[in-house]
Design a protein that fits this description.
heterodimer; A: alpha/beta; Rossmann fold; 3 domains; six-stranded mixed beta sheet; 21 helices; B: 242 residues; mainly alpha; 0% strand; flat
């Protein structure tokens, strides 16, 4: 294959009238899309789940149609060269990509090998590779001593940092990241942010994400795709989030908390002159002497993002006493856990990657036998991290019918299943095998089956928002509120502190194999020292909570 | 100490010793091989004797098959045993069933010596560098090794999900029906994961037929040749004494 040299002032990446249609599909997955990423620019690409954001990235380096069959129309180019001019592997010197579930795409046996992999493939001389690996490890915050460690022995968070270091080491002009913060631990997300800001315009960034609060301030431009796979909005973050807030919210995409606060303040005539990107900026923009007028607005903003009070003193549903929790066949990971969940209560179980949250959840549900201590209460239901693990039937409708009350007649169960299909926005998918659904649809189906099973008085949800867009997350929050209203106890395992506040009044924090704190979610998540010690990211509304404490204490 | 040697000469020496164990039908020789390797593993490499015994269990069970066959079905297996006993360097001093048993264990011991003293990454890199092993195959092997613990964790989650439906905690050891029911979801997980890993590897420039650097591959040094020669001489000495 021959390649012409790129034009000197060409864009870092360009899509012109691009459409992508997968085989046997009646409609385009993407497009037509026309988009240009300029050199040194940092662009955030937003859109609802399934709108074709990842497909757009795949088309850039020829993964589509080079590896994944599809018909691609229009023109795609990288640095002025057509994407089709090289095989997908031929772009590794120009484009680096951090994948979703980056820790699951590793292929080196040791950390150093993993980071060196792309450079080895480019036949970079060994001394240069060693230099770049050292630099990338430093930038990703990996200690030098980790270079010879086996990847299989690393924790999930460490693997994410290794994947980040591997892309940094490529030292390329264009960096693509597909939902980097959805699976990154807070420390890794912070490293990614520093890497972007530390690149000093030497490279361009195109980042897809659903959790925008942590990174939004880093971007020059935001591009929004609608569910039909076309560009719905394109502009600077500040102008876009203020000028198009209501349109964008209607698309069901995640927007920064600051944008919502700004809209509320605008409605009250209190908006800061400069559109804010963080909640702190929005609060700082409230003029002197206007705190009293702003207080009800801030209170309404916080109330909308915190769980409503429920029956606080319902009867106990499940109780662990001095429990020693261990995974199947594994050694104990948690000791001395005493925890009680009551009817109508939602409790967030928070902790860093590998803290033992899932083990605690399964122990609470009675799915794991305790290695020590006592558990009291009936068995609970659990929605697992990977929703596929719950599916046993051959179609969506059978899966839902199987979950209904066994006392019902087969006809009534099928009827109830049809009602659930509609309630969980799964219409039209009833005859598909559950494994054929998109990730968001799978998660909704798993939650629907759990909600349909009326026999569980305790429901444990393990990372229920992973892979969901704003609308999907709102569905989960509504499910939790519904379960609470029906008198069930809910335990929510998550590392998303913003969602924990939205869904749960109470939180427990797991650190170092023990329960570090148990109390009001709002109180615990307002404590920066505690959050930092537990390896968590502060919730986006934390500055608003502090502001209310200072200006309008209850 | 043995871990410091280049994996390819070590592999060659181990294969020669295994070939000798297969060809020499002599209980004394097999015992000498077992004793020598056990000494190297326990005294030189400081491996736990229990670990060595556990590793030898499958080989011992395999060898026990020969032993029980020769004891219980002496007449039926007499011809095969006679042929084995008349093999090159054969000696009829000890019952053939016992020699076959010892031979299985001796081969297992030499294999264990290689596996326990060789870094798999070093071996694969050496094979890429000196034996033209395709990097696609090599890195697919690495990815597969990383997949194994994740598969185990997936299997556990599926078992917990099934237990939730039945309302009973899962048994420690899954029964045959439960094991069979895990196959399809685990296969789906493995295929999807392998597909993602393949795309990620291609995106990072892995392609066949292009020159490629191999970082940190073990280098062949003089001592590797010397030790290889010493191991072959030792084999000749054991053969002469047996």
């Amino acid at each position: 294959m021959t390649c012409a040299p790129p034009a000197p002032d060409s864009a870092a990446a360009q899509w012109r009238g691009v459409t992508v249609r997968y085989p046997f599909r009646g409609a385009d997955a993407v497009g037509p899309v026309s988009l240009e990423l300029r050199r040194g620019e940092r662009v955030l690409l937003l859109g609802p789940t399934g709108c074709g954001k990842s497909t757009l990235l795949n088309a850039l380096t020829g993964i589509v149609p080079g590896i994944v069959p599809a018909h691609v129309g229009g023109e795609v180019s990288v640095g002025g060269l057509p994407a089709a001019a090289r095989l997908p592997s031929g772009w590794s010197a120009d484009v680096a990509r951090l994948f979703q579930d980056a820790d699951q795409t590793l292929c080196g046996l040791r950390v150093g090998d993993e980071i060196a992999f792309a450079l080895e493939n480019r036949a970079v001389p060994e001394p240069e590779i060693v230099r770049r690996v050292t630099g990338a490890m430093r930038q990703a915050g990996l200690p030098e001593a980790m270079r010879d460690r086996r990847v299989a022995t690393l924790s999930g968070g460490e693997k994410q940092l290794v994947a980040l270091a591997a892309t940094i080491a490529q030292e390329v002009p264009l960096f693509l990241a597909d939902e980097p913060t959805a699976h990154l631990a807070p420390a890794a997300a912070e490293r990614f942010r520093s890497f972007m800001l530390g690149s000093f315009r030497a490279r361009s960034f195109l980042v897809i994400d659903h959790r925008v609060d942590e990174l939004v301030a880093c971007f020059d431009r935001v591009v929004v795709m609608a569910a039909d796979g076309r560009i719905a909005a394109d502009g600077s973050p500040r102008a876009l989030f203020r000028g198009r807030y209501r349109d964008l919210a209607a698309l069901g995409i995640a927007l920064p908390a600051a944008a919502e606060l700004d809209a509320l303040l605008s409605d009250a005539g209190l908006a800061p002159a400069r559109p804010p990107l963080t909640v702190s900026e929005a609060l700082a923009g409230i003029g002197l002497g206007k705190a009293a007028a702003a207080a009800p607005v801030i209170r309404a903003f916080v109330d909308d993002r915190t769980a409503p009070a429920g029956a606080a003193d319902g009867e106990p549903v499940v109780r662990l006493e001095e429990a020693v929790c261990a995974p199947l066949f594994g050694k104990p990971v948690l000791n001395g856990i005493t925890l009680e969940l009551r009817r109508g209560e939602a409790v967030a179980i928070l902790g860093a990657n590998g803290a033992g949250k899932s083990t605690l959840g399964a122990s609470l549900a009675g799915l794991l036998r305790l290695a020590g201590g006592r558990r009291e209460g009936p068995p609970g239901g659990m929605a697992f991290q990977n929703p596929e693990n719950q599916f046993v039937a051959g179609s969506v409708i059978e899966e839902l019918a199987d979950a209904q009350d066994k006392a019902l007649s087969p006809g009534d169960r099928r009827e109830a299943a049809r009602r659930d299909l509609h309630a969980w926005r799964l219409d039209g998918l009833e005859d598909l095998h559950p494994f054929e659904l998109s990730q968001g649809q799978k998660r909704r189906l798993a939650l629907a089956t759990l909600a349909a099973a009326r026999r569980f008085s305790l429901i444990v949800l393990d990372e229920p928002t992973a892979g969901l867009d704003a609308r999907g997350i709102a569905d989960v929050a509504a499910l939790i509120a519904g379960l609470r209203a029906r008198g069930r106890a809910v335990a929510v395992i998550t590392h998303d502190t913003g969602f924990a506040l939205k869904a749960c009044r109470r939180a427990v924090i797991i650190v170092g194999g023990a329960m570090l704190a148990d109390g009001s979610a709002q109180h615990l998540l307002s404590d920066p020292l505690l959050i930092d010690y537990a390896g968590l990211a502060p919730p986006p509304i934390a500055p608003a909570l502090s502001w209310l404490e200072r200006h309008a204490p209850c | 100490m043995l871990t410091a040697f280049h994996p390819l000469p070590k592999l060659t020496v181990c294969l020669v010793w295994i070939a000798a164990s297969v060809l020499v039908f002599d209980a004394g020789f097999q015992l000498a091989v077992i004793a020598l390797v056990a000494f190297l593993l326990v005294a030189v490499e400081r491996r736990s004797p229990l670990l060595v015994i556990v590793l030898m269990l499958p080989f011992a069970l395999f060898g026990a098959g020969f032993l029980t066959t020769s004891v219980l079905f002496g007449e039926e297996s007499a011809y095969a045993e006679r042929m084995a006993g008349e093999a090159l360097f054969g000696s009829g001093a000890v019952a053939p069933g016992i020699v076959l048993f010892l031979r299985a264990v001796a081969c297992g011991m030499v294999s264990a010596l290689f596996a326990l003293t060789t870094d798999p990454a070093g071996l694969v890199k050496a094979l890429m560098l000196h034996a033209r092993l395709s990097p696609r195959i090599a890195h697919a092997l690495f990815a597969a090794m990383l997949l194994v613990p994740d598969l185990a964790s997936q299997a556990q989650q599926i078992r917990l999900a099934r237990a939730m439906r039945t309302g009973r905690p899962p048994r420690r050891i899954p029964g045959p029906v439960e094991t069979a029911s895990l196959v399809v979801p685990l296969l789906a997980f493995a295929i999807r994961r392998a597909g993602r890993a393949a795309i990620a590897m291609e995106t990072r420039g892995l392609a066949g037929g292009r020159p490629r650097t191999v970082v940190g591959a073990p280098r062949v040094r003089r001592r590797d040749g010397l030790c290889g020669a010493a191991a072959i001489l030792l084999l000749a000495a054991v053969l002469a004494l047996a």
